[in-house]
Amino acid sequence: MDLGEANYAPLSPLVFLERAAQIHPQRPAVIYNSRRFTWSQELQRCRRLASALRRRGIGPGDVEKKFFLFCKIHGFFFLFCKVAVVAPNVPAMYEVQFGVPMASAVLNCVNIRLDQRTVATLFHYSGVKAVLVDEEFLHLISGALRDWTAKAGTLFQAPFVVVIRDEFFQGMENSWPPGSSDYEDFLREGDPSFEWTRPEDETETISVSYTSGTTASPKGVMLTHRGAYLSALSECVTWEMKHGCIYLWTLPLFHCNGWCFPWAVAALAGTNICLRQVTAKGIFAAIAEHNVTNFCAAPTVLNTIISAATGSTFSRLQHRQVRIMTAGAAPPATVLAKIEALGFHVTHVYGLTETYGPCTVCEWNPEWDNLSPDEQARLKARQGVKYVGLDGLQVLNSETLEPVAKDGVTIGEVCMRGNMVFKGYLNNPEATLESFRGGWFHSGDLAVWHPDGYIEIKDRAKDIIISGGENISSLEVESILYRHPAVLEAAVVARPDEKWGESPCAFVSLKYGVRSNEEEILSFCRQHLPKFMVPKSVVILAALDKTATGKIQKQVLRSKARALGSVKQISKL
User: Fold this and answer.
1) Does domain 300-310+325-414+431-460 have CATH number 2.30.38.10?
2) Domain ranges, ordered by start, for the chain
3) Strand order of the sheet with strand 441-449?
4) β-strand partners of 399
5) Class of residue 175 by CB neighbours under 10 A (exposed 0-12, middle 13-18, buried 19+)
6) Nearest Cα to Cα of residue 79 among 208, 209, 196, 218
7) CA–CA separation, 122 vs 127, rounded Å?
8) From CA 207, how far away is CA 222, in angstroms rounded?
9) Secondary structure (3-state) at 357
10) Is the pLDDT of residue 153 over 70?
11) 49-58, 79-88, 477-486: which range is least confident on average?
12) What sequence ranges are listed for the domain AMP-dependent synthetase/ligase (predicted)?
């Protein structure tokens, strides 16, 4: 029997906005300092944005024929009608998650920490037609567009620019590119009753998210309407989010569409609290003022909260109901224990840009309630089991593609399959085929499988240190370093070693006002690690290099370790 209108509709997360506006039109949808929009207003604003984009020529069927032929010949997944957005977590950044795909365009939220040359390259290879930019980043976009024009020549028309003005921005004013429009004026060009349509095919691309590039060059990850819909609902179920939740935007919205939470919050008719800058003071103030129920944070943000809460007058009772979802890097058990001691409830998840953000969760078992806080934290540090929306999760032998033993010891590669896995890499069919080898998406993360079915990441494939034939997990060494009372952040990478080939090199930053030195930290490691795992060198930095999403950039640290030269003699152990 054929499916028809009565029993089938293409899935798209855009429907969550209309439902929220229909059922809770006066409920606050977005709050940013003194600015407030209800769900009814947000629906009108997103419709206006979609309509204005369409009136400017952004929409389906807008294809330059000569370049389409070029892409077809060379096998590119080229996407036209692409709208790039460069902004922090302000209301406009939330609205584009709906308004751009409502125009049948493809959304690309750009990492605000990229340099202009990289941004220009992304624009060039992904067919950007319009750029929406916060005024703070006008200098970045102006430079990127100059570079882009130099590369594109006459093949493309330069994208038009819409500037997002922010009365709360305290920085220096920047010049607007010629012909730019103001965001609010641009919305007024659009129709608040614009009749948008669902995608004909739910596997159409809703957005392109570029990987953070912690281990390699950024790649354009194509996400679909269907995957975004299912991922958003999976977030609601997995985190047991409540209808009408108050969600604080500490996670960058440009990071794989905020892990699909823009759509998840709309599905629950919740309230989005926007933070332009993420600081502990801002987080504490938002929790106190708005009764925040949920927010997401990388372990580095958890560290910031822990440090700021020490000696703070901020009451533990004010955030006893706040639920934190953490991911982005494997959180040390000591960090989880400290944040929970402050009264927060932490859920540890794991995923990648290629899986729409989180796709596994360390789901809590009631029988763990009576364990010691340290043991609970150790269990919570595991990456867990698959989301309800993920079809398959395995730890496989990378060569045979057979599942490894569930013994908590045997290391394999974490692999996924199903609707929460991306469509492919934009303009990179070779990388797409390699990542889907054997019918699984290969994450590049190495893990063990415990007898209870929970996975635990041991390292990135590129981060394993092979010293004298022994495999050393950088995460295990880092977990010990985080236990040192002076250490705020830690990362361990391989450094060339004349005797062992390579050996662990630890980069650490210290807590504010606390002193330590290399020998003291090495001595601590000797007390808590097997001899072969002890770092041969420690480098103390003011801060570790990170991506905009809080991930420590190990490729940068590896370069620094190589620049130190080879370890020429064995450290005294």
Assistant:
1) yes
2) 39-224, 300-310+325-414+431-460, 465-563
3) 392-396, 411-417, 441-449, 455-460
4) none
5) exposed
6) 208
7) 9
8) 6
9) strand
10) no
11) 79-88
12) 17-426
Please, are residues 92 and 236 in contact by the beta-carbon 8 Å criterion? no
CA separation for the pair 431, 409 (Å, rounded): 30
Element (H, E) at 145: helix 138-152
**Mean pLDDT, the chain, whole residue set:** 88
Q: Are 294 and 248 in contact, with CB atoms under 8 Å apart?
A: yes
Contacts of residue 434, Cβ cutoff 8 Å, sequence gap at least 6: 442
Token pair for 178: 């010629």
Sign of the alpha-carbon torsion through 294, 300, 301, 307: positive
As a three-state string, the secondary structure of 175-197 is: CCCCCCEEHHHHHHHCCCCCCCC
- Band (pLDDT 50/70/90 cuts) for residue 125 is confident
Please determine, looking at this structure, whether the domain spanning 39-224 carries the CATH number 3.40.50.1110: no
Q: Per-residue pLDDT averaged across 87-115, rounded? A: 94
Residue 459 near residue 474, CB atoms below 8 Å = yes
Can you tell me the mean pLDDT for 479-483? Answer: 90
Query: With helix as H, strand as E and coil as C, how does 447-503 read?
Result: EEECCCCCEEEEEECCCCEEECCEEECHHHHHHHHCCCCCEEEEEEEEEEECCCEEE
What residues contact residue 553 under an 8 Å CB cut-off, 6+ apart? 214, 544, 545, 546, 547
Q: Label residue 60 exposed, middle or buried (CB < 10 Å: 0-12, 13-18, 19+).
A: middle
Helix (H) or strand (E) holding 259: helix 256-259
List, for residues 251-266, the tens digit of each pLDDT value: 999 988 999 999 999 9
Contact 301/327 with Cβ under 8 angstroms? no
Q: Are 495 and 561 in contact (CB under 8 A)?
A: yes
Cα separation, 204 vs 104, in Å, equals 9
Class at the top of the CATH hierarchy for domain 465-563:
alpha beta
- How far apart, in whole angstroms, are the C-alpha atoms of residue 107 and residue 49? 13
Q: Which two tokens stand for residue 42?
A: 């947000």
Residue 80: per-residue pLDDT: 52
Q: How far apart are the C-alpha atoms of 132 and 183, rounded to whole Å?
A: 8
pLDDT in tens, 206-230: 999 987 554 446 688 999 999 999 9
Q: Which residues lie below 8 Å from residue 401, measured CB to CB, with a gap of 6+?
A: 437, 438, 440
